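User: Predict the structure for this protein chain, please.
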Amino acid sequence: MQLHCIDTGVPENEQTTLPLVVLHGLFGSADNWRSHIKQWQPDRRVIAPDLRNHGRSPHVEGMQYAAMAADVIALLDSLEIGKIDLLGHSMGGKVAMTLARLHPERVAHLIVADIAPVVYAHGHDEIFTALRRVECAEPASRRDAGTLMQEAIDSAPTRQFLATNLVSDGDGVMRWRVGLDEISAGYEDIIAAPDGDEPFEGPTLLIRGGASPYVRDDYRDAVEAVLPGAEWQTLEGAGHWLHAEQPEAFREAVNRFLDAS
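Assistant: Here is the predicted structure, written as structure tokens:
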């Protein structure tokens, strides 16, 4: 399976920096990272894939982290890319941790954004309800879809984020480009801990949102077991989508870490 990706190519002034691979979260896509990619691409090659069942990538059964990490490795092999710097947010952070644990020789630096290597509780019931409501209603516009989602989701930013997955089918109907059936069937694997038996010993930065519940202080032992010696950085006031809420602070943290190590 070939993942769709944004690939900026090697910049003219590139010297010794490794390619930066960016992995999005659940219901996201590479498109969500375009503003960051624009800032990074003058100095390094950036590859941002749509993970399976997301964006423009194929819809297939299975959301196991080992399988999603294998998809990314296959993409890198097809691009003839060896070692990388790796950044993953939320679900993409678990894919990144899995890839780093299973293929440590491919990862020079690991950056995990607002996710821990733990099993999470079910927390997306209202999103699945909203997506199914839109799917059944077959709205003609994003505005109509937003109205339908509002019955299940109070947060306007969350509705706007989800609406980035709507595309016209050519007959005037807005449809989800995510593999909703496949994601729903694989949800237990999504909330599971990342795959891999060994810790990743390489340089690691864990960035969390100070207002996010995803990386609590009592997860430190779990993080240490998988990412020993990981540096923690908290963006105060930021929530789970910290890269969108505080883009400059997020990017500064990433750049500082990559430049210093």
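Residues 125-179 form one domain.
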